[in-house]
Every structure is written in structure tokens, then in C-alpha cells.
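Progress narrative, work stream C.
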Amino acid sequence: MIPAEVYTERRKKLMKLLGTGVIVIPPNPKMKYSQDKYFKYRPNSNIFYLSGMIQEDTIIVLDNISKKSYLFLLDQDYDYQRWHGRKIDREYAGELSNFIFVYPIHELKQKLLELLKSEDTLYYQSGVNLQYDRIIEEVENEIEIKIKDPSPSIDTLRLFKDEYEIELLKKSASITVNGHLEAIRKTKIGMKEHEIESIYTGYFHFNGAILPMHQAIVASGENAIYLHHMAFTRQIQDGDLILVDTGCEYMGYTTDIARTWPANGKYSKSQKMIYEIVLRTHKICLEKVKPYVKFRDIHETAVMELTKGLIELKIINESLEDAINNESYKKYFMHYIGHFIGLDGHDSLTTNREEITLTPGMTITIEPGLYISDEKDIPEIFRNIGIRIEDNLLVTETGMINLSKDLPIEIEEIENLMIE
């Protein structure tokens, strides 16, 4: 549990960073599944970051002139609660999140009009929730204001994890690692992709992670060459590789870990050859993760090492220099070497990875991969092989901590897991 005063300090930092204006953080909408049924609610990560609140229709308003923070909640509707459960009341919400000023949601517009009498800048991210976009439009029609997006500033704060966030990410990584171990051990030829996914879902739930980071990527055989293939009904065949990229969400914090293993317990010769290139690249990139290294430099290292391997196997028939300059490698490695993790599996999306320098407190992934299609110019033994290895790392003052180090990556270790 993150102490309430931590949320207060985060709100103060955001106001200081923006310097002026009224800041409004809208909630995620409830998403309809079918007719009158809804998906399980997942709060806007920025609402959670600044308050710890997970209830729908919760809005944060920060005023930089008075330096006051306001929380707006669903009105108490006891008929609604009889059907859907008790909602957090204003008194308890104030205690949970350290808000002095807590109002019912129907007073939002009037409060904004009041605050914006002495401010001409409103920080608001449109497109998150159309219901509240309309309220902001109504405010804008009544008074002249400039609207700016606060997302880059919030992302800057969220890049650096405090001690509480680090502990939650460690727990999330531990659950995800053990979910992978469970799935690898239980894999059988003839299972379907969605059955593999169900192993993770069950393990995550039983260990306190209510939501997955995202719908798991579970790709068997030829499906592994598609980067975001979602689990479906394909039946796992003898000789298939299984690529799973997933992570659990534990108390709001998510990890994102990938492994690729053989359905029958043994990598074929050609699968080993591709796997060893990805593994070699992975290890070299891990060694480069340390403070004050540019993320771009690690990506460029991955590109060079993967391209070398593709040339060695005659999948690419160019010199190393030409293959990199011509971007021939992008046919087989088309994503970045990693991303940030935290409250979102792909955290701080407004941060430019090409320019960022790794700094203590950042949490990132390293995930080289190769995805070989079935085109005729590719040696037949390598066609339809997709492999990705992904670990989650905390950048420290002296280097990094691998949060997912307990999940094997060596070929022999993975094969041994499958015969335990």
C-alpha cells in the first residue's frame, strides 16, 4: 500500500512542473462488453498515480494559484449501489488519497468555472473520456481559456519510480515469472493457444494480480512471426515454438516478460540457431543497461548483433554495413529494443526513447526478437520461426537489477524445465 502522503507529494511535483494553470485529470470510461454488461473497470493510470483511486468517474483537479487539490467522485446513488456494490464515499476517499477538498461529480463544471476566473490555462488530455470532453467544451464556450496537454509532464514524473513503486514492480515481476514457469511446465502438444493463456490468467488471479497487463500474446508455430498475435484456437503441433509475451498487474503496477519455448520440449537445430542469435543479443544488451547510457545506443547494439546473426545464417545476403544502412534487418526485427514499464505495460509513451538517457529509478524492458517469414528467398529451415526474449530491468546507481532474472533463458534450462 502506498501511503496517502506520497500522492500529495506527486500532486505537488506536478503543479510545480507545470507552474501555472488548472490541471484536470479525467477518468477512463466504463467499456461496454455487450448490451448492459461491462468489462472489468481499469482506472486511468494518471488518476491512480496521483490518488490511488480505482473507482470509475473519479476526477482530479489541481489549482496552481491556490496550490489546492480537488477530488470529484460519483454521487452517492443507493439504488445503483444495491445492484452494483458500495462506492467509496467522500470522507474515505479523502483519507485514502490525502485530499481535503472532495466534491460530488455533478459540481465539476461549476468548480472549473470558478477556478478559471483567475487562470487562463487549462491542462487537460482530450480523447480519454468523451463524456468529460463535452464538459470541458462547455467550460471553453463560457470563458476564454487555452487548453494544453499535461501528459508529457506526468510521464516525466512517472519515469522515475520511488521505493514503493519498485517494491510493487518486483512483486508483479515475481508473479509473472512464476506464471511463465507454470505455463512452460504444463505445455502439451495438442493444447490450444487460449489454453496456454488460461494458465497465466489463473495463476495471476490466485496470486493477487486481478488484471493482466494486457491480453496475453500467445503465439504458436507460424503465429509467432506476428508481433501481437492474441491467443486463439490454433492447436499446438509437434515441432512448434510457443512465444508468450505477457505480464500481470499487481496493485496497479505492471511487468512485461516474454519467453519462447518448444512445444515438444526440444528446440530443433534451426530453432536453436535463431534462438542463439536472439539470446546472444539479449545478453549483450543487458550488459549495456546502466546509468547515463542512451536507450538509442542499446537499440543500435541490438540491430548490429541481430543483423550479424542473420548474415551468418545467410538470411540476409549483404555486408553488415549495407544491411544496416539499407535497414534490411527491419524485415526480421521491426520493433524497438525496449520500452518503459510502470503503471502501464508501455509506460510514459510521450517520452522519446531515441533521446532519453537511462537514469537511476527508470524501469525498462530489453526484448530482442527475430521473426522469420515463409518467403521463398529465405532458407527453408528458418521459415516461420518467431523468437522473442524479454526481461524487465530497474536502472540503479551502479548498473541495473534484472527483475525477471529467475526466469530461465538458456536453451538447456528451458528444455530441463519441460521434463521436470
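Work stream C, second folded protein:
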Amino acid sequence: AGTVEEVGENITTFKRGDRVMALVRGGYAEFVTAREALASHIPETISFIEAASVPCVFLTAWYGLTALGQMQSGERVLIHAAGSGVGTAGIQLAKALGATVYTTAGTDLRVARGISLGADAGINYSTEDLTLQLLHLTGGSGVDVVLDNVGGGIFDATLPALARDGRIVNVGSPAGTRSTVDEDTANSKNQRVHSSQVFNNTQEDTEGSGWRQVSEWIANDTIRTVIDRVLPWGQADHAHKLLRSRSIFGKIVLTIE
């Protein structure tokens, strides 16, 4: 999040001095360029700090659920890793889109916080059988859409609880060993597994539909940013250590004085 310093000849949406949040590569640089399609005006209801926590996680979750997951209102949606940035965004977006939402985390506290964001139920995958619990929650039918930014054993335990015509969207790189999908089983149930990196699908928002909906919901408090803590730029190394320790819930924002 920041102010526009320069406006290209073909850009009509922004002007110099506008408050803008954008999904960019190289965000640690002093100055960055952003594609117009990946930038949006900051809603007046939030600060620069709050805006800094929006683009990566909310656009990633939005396109994972809508473009890849093809989520429909009324479906059962599973959001893994409730405490992650994408997890906190995914729970809120899936609920706002009309889904019954389930979430997972590795501690009871993180599960409870995921439920407080709007999930209908949660599972502690460290102490509970993920497959059995998902089947129990869905009356044996399984979940329709899964947003998974964990992978590994969590992905393996989710597959048996994926409904017929179900879709799993993997975001980023998996934790632990890489999994394989039984293609015969998946094909017989018309199940699909999509893999996506942050920039792959969000760049397709040439009409700004994702930005418009996310900004509207932020402005009317349907969804909210989740920031664990704010640190000065000089503590970037400490911020990375916190991320690796998995001791945070939501996002860390670095500020420049």
C-alpha cells in the first residue's frame, strides 16, 4: 500500500498522489511498478497499514475460490490453515459468497479463531482424524471446494473427504512430502485438483471484478483485515523468523518511517 508516484501514459484509473494498494513482485524494493489490473484504490474505511495486508491474501483466496474452485453459493468449502494469511481471507470470502465453511488448524486456539472469522466448524488436524471429521461434518458427502495452502499429509487426508465433482485448489508449495493423486479415482468422481501460485490467476483480473468485490466488502465491514502485529522495517529479519515459527495469526505488516 502506498501513494502513486508516477502515472504511465496508458493508465486512466489512478493519478499521482492516490492511495493505492497493489499486488506486486519485489515488494521490498524502494519503488515498484504495479500492473493497473493488480492495483486498486484503498477504501476510505481502512488505513495504509490495513491496506498493506489485503492484496496478496485476499486476491489469492478470491481467485482460488472463484476462478479455479468455481465455488457456488450453498456449497461446502474447506479452508485449510485458519491462521495463515490466505486462510483468514479464504474463510471470510467463502462465507460472504454463501458457502458453508469448514476450517482447519494445528491448535484448538487457532481453530477457535478461524470460527470467529465466520467458519461454521473447525478441525484440529494435530489431534483429530481430518478425513473422518470432514465426512462426519458433511453427513458423509464430503466437501465441494478446498482451498489448501498446506499440502503434504493434509492434502492426502483431504482427498478421501472430497465430494463427487469436488475441486481442490493448491496455493503455493506443499509442506513435507509431495502427494500424488489417483487419477482413476479422481476421474470416476469427476474431481479436479488445481495448482496455483499467487500471481498466476490474479493477473487475469483485467476488469477488476475481484478488486471491486473485495473493496466493497472491506468498506462495509463484511470482511476485515487480520493483522497479527506491525513491525518497523528494521525488524524484517525478526518478522521472517516469526513467519517460520508459525506463531502468528494473520499477517505481519512492516512499516517505513
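DSSP finds ten helices and eleven strands in the chain. No further action is required on this item.
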